[in-house]
User: What shape does this take?
Amino acid sequence: MANDRIVYYFWTISDWAYFGQERLEALARKYNVAIDYRPVDLPKVYARTGGILLGQRSKQRQDYRIAELKRWRKRLSIPLNIEPKYFPVNQDASSRLIVAAKLAGLPLGNLTFTIMRGMWADEVDISDEATLRKIAAPHVPDVDALLAASKTPEVQAEYDRYTDQAPADGVFGSPFYLYGGDILWGQDRLEFLEELLAEKQGKG
Assistant: This one.
């Protein structure tokens, strides 16, 4: 299954992507498939697909989100601050860093999870370059080179391409997983993703 892959669209400041990140990587290892990481500028995706930013949603919707976060935090035993100190922040720098690492052929799973955990559990500002340097340093061979690469037009163009392509692929939120012609929205759909992986590989 060398060419098998999960296309993974996500927002780096997404609470739900954070909840699903480690489980997604575990599935990829279990079924020996690659993950095509595609960070997006979600507000731009929302603008094209009818999404509403959190701060503009009704109180009822915001209250329900908090209730769900508490449920899933308990279910998954993953640390998460319901109202993190630095949220929301601009996602561009962290997204470009992941894109730069991808173009350099570096592993992305731990880097991406640590960035997300920085916001949702460690109370750090992931839009700050010094913070991103500290987060990324243990996961990459040359963090300064990676930060420099993240500011290049090539990386920006790739990041823009993912954002532009997402709606065409049926994406309207974060996280989205695309596999074998199916699209799945939300970390609570990872069980369905595993069913698809097992079926394709004859393990169902």
Notes: The mean pLDDT is 96. Residues 5-200 form a domain with the Glutaredoxin fold (CATH 3.40.30.10). DSSP finds nine helices and four strands in the chain. The chain has one domain: 5-200.
